[in-house]
Amino acid sequence: MIRVLIAEDQALVGGALAALLGLEPDIEVVAVARDGAIAWERLGQGGIDVLVTDIEMPGMTGLELAQRVRDAALDVRVVVVTTFARGGYLRRALDAGARGYLLKDSPADKLAEALRSVHRGGRAIDPELAVEAWGEADPLTERERQVLRLAGEGRSAPEIAAHLNLSQGTVRNYLSEAIGKLGVGNRIEAHRLARQKGWL
To answer: Where would I find the HTH luxR-type domain in this sequence (predicted)?
Structure first.
């Protein structure tokens, strides 16, 4: 039996995934967590073979959750199920230790088969996305990404500085670096482009 934890902030989607996977004779959905922090807490209790996670969730993203699983050397395989058909997200997911990357509009039997494959030690990745993921490297550092993400939420430099425990000058430097690397005119354009590429 493959014991699965689903991390999905949209209740309808999480419930649908649980119901679909629950129809499989060899898969048991142990729990559905509404965000990354709750999922991380549940993982700490053990008894999970595969984590199925969305990317964007409040508190802790699916990519941050995958990274924690990898850093803690948990015996849990991670499969990302998302709406983001972008190579940048796939590349970051793989870097964070994910073994699978599927789109939410994939057929239900494809998801179940992907979980079986990943549970056996394999990978389950859309081949077209895999080609795109290695087409263009992500130029941003993790800190530039954090600052740009907060700027895209409309936060000011002082607010970003307080949130990340940095000086305002350092925040402005990170924003300037990100804008320069992306070849755009301001932080709004930088955020839009980085999001479009899947780098945020």
So the answer is: 133-198
Contact (CB, 8 A) for 76 and 44: no
Last residue of one domain, picked from the residues 84, 111, 133? 133
Assess whether 99 and 14 both reside in one domain: yes
Q: Are 53 and 66 in contact (CB under 8 A)?
A: yes
Give residue-wise pLDDT tens across range 42-97: 999 999 999 999 998 887 899 999 999 999 999 999 999 988 777 778 888 988 99
The CATH number of the domain holding residue 174 is 1.10.10.10
Q: What is the pLDDT of residues 10-52, one digit of tens each?
A: 999 999 999 999 999 999 999 999 999 999 999 999 999 999 9
The amino acid sitting at 187 is R
